[in-house]
Write a structure and sequence with these properties.
It is a single chain. This protein is α+β, with helices and mostly antiparallel strands. The protein folds into three domains: 102 residues, Hypothetical protein, domain 2 (Endonuclease III, domain 1), CATH 1.10.340.30; 89 residues, Endonuclease Iii, domain 2 (Orthogonal Bundle), CATH 1.10.1670.10; 132 residues, Nucleoside Triphosphate Pyrophosphohydrolase, CATH 3.90.79. The protein is built from 16 helices and six strands. The radius of gyration is 23 Å and the shape is globular. Bound molecules: iron/sulfur cluster. The site of iron/sulfur cluster has 15 residues, from helix 9 and helix 12.
């Protein structure tokens, strides 16, 4: 029997009886996947049940007030996820009659849905052949294939996604993805994996070569990187410009205030984008920042200067954004935290409130 088949048979016998797996429906799978990003299954289940009872479908979630959605998110933390769920539900109702599009690229455009969640929803609900890659799956795959590069490096994501795609059981992609996650959570544990019970043990590189304690390789880059950055707040009719740029080092996939780093940067990926540099040209040479603050993201210590820039012509920004493949939108100051759900937004907002008063 091939390894994919063995894994599938193991999954059918050992899968947990979870409410969101009862039917192959995208909505409950989506809600459960987002909840599970921050909470263990047992703690999440009662919160899931009450959330689904109140918001049983995308329509009910889309119609609800944000405050009520947040109230039902209590106990799960990371409230931006709940806000994004509601926003995505509104988008689904307005554009797809409340159903999930069966297309990875379209699902990835929904607020708050990243590669892992999109693949999980589409494979589990619709059996689309899309392999997922989360921490558990990375561990299983590196041991199974004997992948000895640092799994915390960006390269490993690409390498292991290829292996996940190769290993995917095309007859049962949804079950396969869940089986891989379940295997990582219950047998292929970080310490002392239970190889004797594992359906993949016969072909597993790490088990055969007794390297389960050495694989996966996890090397944390502890070197601190110091960066100086600038944030531009463009104003037009009491609205502020937010952008989403495809190749950003930080805040990937998220609408954010235009920012860039100044001076020497450690590598190309930190360089300011042409879009940011074009906007910055409009800043008068003698401009002083309206405020400065410090911010840390993983091992990056940053100091940002915030510049306010009244902007008359929205069409100019739209044209420039289009030319450079950047998405842009104008939002009110009061919605800044929800449109740009990062602590960076709150730090900038303090200076803007001061400007308004
Ligand atoms: S045999 Fe052991 S190391 Fe290999 S996948 Fe199974 S549990 Fe993990």
């Amino acid at each position: 029997m091939n390894p994919g088949k063995k894994l599938h048979e193991w999954y059918l016998i050992h899968k947990r009886d979870l409410p969101f797996r009862k039917k192959k429906q995208a909505y409950p799978i989506w809600i459960s996947e987002v909840m599970l990003q921050q909470t263990r299954v047992n703690a999440m289940l009662p919160l899931y049940e009450s959330f689904i009872k109140r918001f049983p479908n995308p329509e009910s979630l889309a119609q609800a007030e944000e405050d009520e959605v947040l109230a039902h998110w209590k106990g799960l933390g990371y409230y931006s996820r709940a806000r994004n769920l509601r926003k995505a539900a509104i988008f689904l109702v307005q554009n797809y009659n409340g159903a999930f599009p069966k297309d990875l690229n379209l699902v990835l455009k929904l607020p708050g849905i990243g590669n892992y969640t999109a693949r999980a929803i589409l494979s589990i609900a619709y059996d689309l052949p899309l392999a997922v890659l989360d921490g558990n799956v990375k561990r299983v795959l590196s041991r199974y294939y004997g992948y000895t590069e640092n799994i915390l490096s960006p390269k490993a994501d690409g390498d292991l996604q290829k292996k996940a795609d190769e290993f995917l059981n095309l007859e049962h992609p949804g079950d396969h993805n869940q089986a891989m996650m379940e295997l990582g959570a219950t047998l292929c544990l970080p310490e002392s994996p239970k190889c004797l019970l594992c359906p993949l043990s016969e072909d597993c590189f790490a088990r055969i070569h007794q390297k389960t304690s050495e694989i996966p390789v996890r090397v944390k880059d502890k070197k601190q990187i110091t960066l100086e950055g600038e944030i531009l707040v463009l104003w037009n009719q009491n609205c502020i410009l937010l952008v989403r740029e495809p190749k950003m080092r930080f805040l990937k996939g998220m609408f954010h205030l235009p920012y860039g780093f100044t001076g020497e940067v450690p590598e190309e990926t930190y360089e300011s984008t042409p879009f940011f540099l074009s906007l910055k040209k409009s800043l008068p040479k003698d401009s002083s920042p309206i405020g400065e603050f410090k911010h840390t993201i993983t091992h990056h210590k940053m100091k940002f200067s915030v510049f306010s820039l009244p902007w008359e012509d929205r069409a100019l920004v739209a044209g420039l954004a289009k030319e450079l493949g950047v998405e842009s939108k104008w939002v009110t100051l009061s919605s800044l935290d929800t449109e740009f759900p990062s602590s960076l937004a709150s730090k900038v907002k303090k200076f803007l409130l001061y400007l308004e008063s």
